[in-house]
DNA sequence: TATTGTTATACTCTATAACTATA
DNA sequence: TATAGTTATAGAGTATAACAATA
């Protein structure tokens, strides 16, 4: 997303001649501002955009970061297990892993028990990058959210979103 | 989304032999369950999925519904204005509009003032379909969310997401 | 026969450049 | 020259089918 798709905020969209008096009417969101799915998607895009920006020094996408986090918390799992947990289809997980492995952040090792499966592990560099990424996420990304919503607000938001994700 | 990418919920992932005692360890989400962006995305997918299901009789996607809502609330606007407001790029808005217009839900009319621009309007059928869609959204989709979160919870969630979408 | 990782493929979203017709 | 709508195109993300190796 370069800059073009960013939605117009409430007081924009005027033509040159109308800037001073803000003459031209802004487009009304109307009932859209009460549609949870719409606002949810908008908020999600904003949060991902900020995540990307905060972790830019390490060149990690949200998806890549989530894989590293999961490998750290679950050493010795295979591709299917990790992909399923993240809701990523196995075929699509292959290239994601390829990119991480080519950067020496994780490795695939054929399992001794079941030689069909690949055991996934973080490399030393993977651990180091993950540690640095976590620091950036906490100190920059989540810190900004805390600032905007307050610690209580953030907790409440997380609880409601988790409820939707798990029970809806 | 057929069914494959659905994430494994907490107590799954065991091998056949282990089902009874739930022996095989579930993959641990770990810090992922505290990452707002992750939960936000998961919740958004769930909500869109439910929206699609609830409005299935009318064959409207969330994006198409948002366009119809906006045209209803802002008659006489052109493509650029509507697309910008929704955060849709003008080139991508063309085929979206084509599909709505081919179903006789809206029309493009060349503006008399500025013959470059297309004024957008809902057709009679467009108004009717939008009215029916609104009923389905309120009575099925948003009703389910209200049931899950409670009216106060829903309001609080909407307020926080709006804040993120506008100020983050 | 079933499963793991993989390839190939297709469809949707999103993004940019460039054309045309108007201004 | 600048803007509105459009075309073409390219890249992500996501989906399914099918194959080789292994169980």
What's a concise summary of this model?
2 copies of one chain form a homodimer. By secondary structure, chain A is mainly α. The first copy, chain A, is built from 5 helices and 2 strands.
Describe the structure.
Two copies of one chain form a homodimer. In chain A, about 55% of the residues lie in helices and about 5% in strands. Chain A is mostly helical. The first copy, chain A, has one domain: Winged helix-like DNA-binding domain superfamily/Winged helix DNA-binding domain (Arc Repressor Mutant, subunit A), CATH 1.10.10.10. In chain A, a hairpin with a 7-residue loop joins strand 1 (about 105-110) and strand 2 (about 120). In chain A, helix 1 (about 35-55) runs antiparallel to helix 5 (about 125-165). The first copy, chain A, is elongated. The interface between A and B is large, with 69 and 69 residues. Chain B binds a DNA duplex (23 and 23 nucleotides) through helix 4.
């Amino acid at each position: 997303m370069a800059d073009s798709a960013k939605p117009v905020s409430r007081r924009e969209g005027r033509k040159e001649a109308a800037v001073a008096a803000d003459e031209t009417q802004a487009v009304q969101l109307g009932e859209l501002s009460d549609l949870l799915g719409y606002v949810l998607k908008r908020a999600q895009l904003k949060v991902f955009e900020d995540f990307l920006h905060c972790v830019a020094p390490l060149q990690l996408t949200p998806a890549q970061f989530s894989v590293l986090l999961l490998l750290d918390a679950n050493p010795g799992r295979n591709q299917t297990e990790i992909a399923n947990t993240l809701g990523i289809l196995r075929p699509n997980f292959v290239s994601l892993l390829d990119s991480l492995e080519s950067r020496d952040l994780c490795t695939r090792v054929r399992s001794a028990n079941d030689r069909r499966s690949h055991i996934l592990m973080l490399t030393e560099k993977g651990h180091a990058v993950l540690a640095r990424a976590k620091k950036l996420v906490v100190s920059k990304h989540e810190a900004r959210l805390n600032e905007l919503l307050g610690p209580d607000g953030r907790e409440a938001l997380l609880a409601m979103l988790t409820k939707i994700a798990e029970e809806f």
